[in-house]
Write a structure and sequence with these properties.
The chain is an alpha/beta fold and 313 residues long. The protein has helices spanning 39-45, 106-126, 143-154, 167-172, 185-198, 209-222, 246-250, 266-283, 297-300; strands spanning 2-6, 14-17, 27-37, 58-59, 63-67, 73-77, 89-93, 97-99, 134-138, 159-164, 177-180, 202-205, 229-233, 254-258, 290-293, 308-311. It has two domains: 2-100 and 266-311, Quinone Oxidoreductase, Chain A, domain 1; 114-258, 3-Layer(aba) Sandwich (Rossmann fold). 32% of the residues lie in helices and 25% in strands. The mean pLDDT is 95.
Length: 313
C-alpha cells in the first residue's frame, strides 16, 4: 500500500510503498480517509516527542478518520507501530476508535481532534472545570488555543482571558480579556497581576517558557490568599524548562498538573474525543484547513502557513 514513510532519523516523510497491516487479536483494520498534520505528528515523526520510541522505518500520523470493514465511519487514535495514520490503511487496537456523528465531515473531524482534545482533556480530566469559573489560556493564537476558548465556554467557563504574541490575532478571538506577550518578563507579569487579583481559577498553558513563569509568579503575588489556581501544562512551544522560585509554590495555592499522553489514560482520552465530537456542532468547533493529497506529503510537510489534512490518493 502507499503511505508517508520516515526511513531514518532526521529525514522527513516520503510517499512510497509500505507493507500491508495485518490485524492481530483485538485489532481492527481501518481504511484511512483523512489524517491531519499537527505539531504532535511532526514531533513524533522527528523522534523528538516524549511519547515516541521510533524504530525505522515507520508510517507517520497519530490519528485520523476512516472506515471499518462494516462501513462505519470512525475516528481512530494511535495505530499500532510501525503503522500510522498517513496511509491507505492502518491497524488500530480495539477501543482506540469512536464512531463519528453524521453532522461532522471527515476533514473537519481530523483537523479538530488533536488540538480540541488537548483542552477538553485538560479542562475536564485535569482541572475539573466548574461552571462559572475563569480560565486563562496561555498561547491562544494557535489551533489548540483557538479551540480552547470555545471549549472552555461550552464546558461552563464564565470568563476567558487569553495571551499571545500576535496582538492583532488576539483581538480577533472570542475572549473577554487579552494580555499580549510583549516586553520583558517583568512587564508581562505586571500586565497579568490585575487579572489574578480579580480571580483566575484555571490556567491552560500551551507555551511554557518565560510566559508560564510570569503567570505563576503573577498568580502567587496577586491572587487572593487561599484561592486555588489550577495550572495545567499542555505544550512547550516557548521552551522545555523554566526556573521557578520555590516561594511561588510555598506562598500560594497554585496546583500544577500536566495534561497529555501519560497523565490522562488512553481510555479517558478516547472518551474525551467522543465527547468533543458530539459537542462539535453545538459548540462551534471548527478550524480553517487545506486538504492535500497524501502523495504531496514531502512537498507540504514543512508548510506552516495552513492547517493541512492529508487525503489518501
Amino acid at each position: 500500500m502507499k503511505a508517508a514513510i520516515v526511513a531514518k532519523a532526521g529525514h522527513g516523510p516520503v510517499y512510497s510503498e509500505f507493507a500491508e497491516p495485518v490485524a492481530g487479536p483485538g485489532e481492527t483494520i481501518i481504511t484511512v480517509m483523512a489524517a491531519a498534520l499537527s505539531p504532535l505528528v511532526r514531533s513524533r515523526a522527528a523522534g523528538k516527542h516524549y511519547s515516541m520510541a521510533a524504530n525505522f522505518p515507520f508510517v507517520v500520523g497519530v490519528d485520523g478518520v476512516g472506515r471499518l470493514e462494516d462501513g462505519r465511519r470512525v475516528y481512530f487514535l494511535l495505530p499500532r507501530a510501525p503503522f500510522g495514520a498517513m496511509a491507505e490503511r492502518t491497524v488500530v487496537p480495539d477501543g482506540q476508535w469512536v464512531t463519528l456523528p453524521d453532522d461532522l465531515d471527515d476533514t473537519m473531524a481530523a483537523v479538530i481532534a488533536n488540538p480540541g482534545m488537548s483542552s477538553w482533556a485538560a479542562l475536564k480530566e485535569r482541572a475539573d472545570l466548574r461552571a462559572g469559573e475563569t480560565v486563562l489560556i496561555n498561547g491562544a493564537t494557535g489551533s489548540a488555543g483557538m479551540l480552547a476558548i470555545r471549549i472552555a465556554r461550552h464546558l461552563g467557563a464564565a470568563k476567558v482571558i487569553v495571551t499571545g504574541r500576535n496582538e492583532t490575532v488576539l483581538r480577533q478571538l472570542e475572549a473577554d480579556d487579552i494580555v499580549p506577550l510583549h516586553g520583558s518578563e517583568d512587564e508581562i507579569e505586571a500586565a497579568l497581576r490585575p487579572h489574578f487579583a480579580n480571580g483566575v481559577d484555571v490556567v491552560l498553558d500551551y507555551l511554557w517558557g518565560p510566559s508560564a513563569r510570569a503567570i505563576l509568579i503573577a498568580g502567587a503575588k496577586a491572587a487572593p490568599e487561599g484561592v486555588p489556581i489550577r495550572f495545567v501544562q499542555i505544550g512547550s512551544i516557548s521552551g522545555s524548562e523554566i526556573s521557578l522560585p520555590a516561594a511561588v509554590l510555598r506562598s500560594s495555592s497554585i496546583a500544577m498538573k500536566g495534561s497529555g499522553l501519560g497523565s490522562v489514560s488512553l481510555p479517558r482520552l478516547v472518551a474525551t474525543i467522543d465527547s468533543l465530537f458530539k459537542a462539535a456542532t453545538s459548540a462551534g468547533l471548527s478550524l480553517d484547513h487545506r486538504a492535500v493529497p497524501l502523495s504531496n506529503v514531502a512537498a507540504s510537510w514543512q508548510d506552516d502557513g495552513q492547517r493541512i489534512v492529508y487525503l489518501p490518493d
